[in-house]
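Re: [ENG-882] Designed sequences occasionally contain unexpected residues at chain ends

Forwarding the minimal case from QA. Structure tokens:
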């Protein structure tokens, strides 16, 4: 076990720490809708989209649910999102350097990569796999029940 703050977490979870970004909103701040904020409008959030990694107000969430591109995204209430342990909230599916989704996994460096990062830094690496293959293997891993147990013990 590895310690995550005061929380013990297994080694596989510790390995994802390089992919964590620090976007947690301070508990005294009230999050606002990401879409409305782009237009300099402040609206209280209702949901968090795990696919887009953004907060939505009620109106924007309704449009998000109806869009063909995002209708199958998983969302959770803003309240549930803020109940998550900090290390879970801070996991990102996007490259910090290029703001692109992680799409590949480099087994030599044991890291997730966006397409641009592979072009820039992993040209000589072999056996780069789609991240979906790695995620499916991780989901079927024997450590998943241990991780679930760790989360239940929080």
């Amino acid at each position: 076990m590895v310690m995550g703050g005061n929380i013990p977490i297994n080694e596989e979870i510790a390995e994802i720490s390089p992919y964590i970004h620090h976007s947690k909103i301070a508990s005294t701040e009230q999050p606002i809708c990401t879409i409305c904020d782009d237009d300099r409008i402040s609206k209280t959030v209702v949901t968090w989209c795990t696919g887009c990694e953004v907060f939505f107000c009620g109106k924007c969430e309704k449009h998000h649910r109806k869009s063909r591109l995002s209708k199958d995204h998983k969302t959770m209430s803003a309240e549930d999102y803020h109940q998550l342990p900090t290390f879970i909230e801070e996991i990102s599916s996007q490259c910090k350097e290029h703001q692109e989704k992680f799409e590949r996994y480099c087994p030599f460096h044991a890291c997730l990569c966006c397409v641009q990062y592979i072009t820039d830094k992993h040209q000589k690496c072999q056996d780069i796999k789609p991240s979906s293959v790695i995620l499916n293997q991780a989901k079927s891993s024997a450590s998943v029940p241990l991780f679930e147990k760790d989360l239940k013990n929080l």
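QA comment: On inspection the terminal residues look reasonable. Residues 22-91 form a domain with the 30s Ribosomal Protein S18 fold (CATH 4.10.640). Proposing we downgrade this to a documentation issue.
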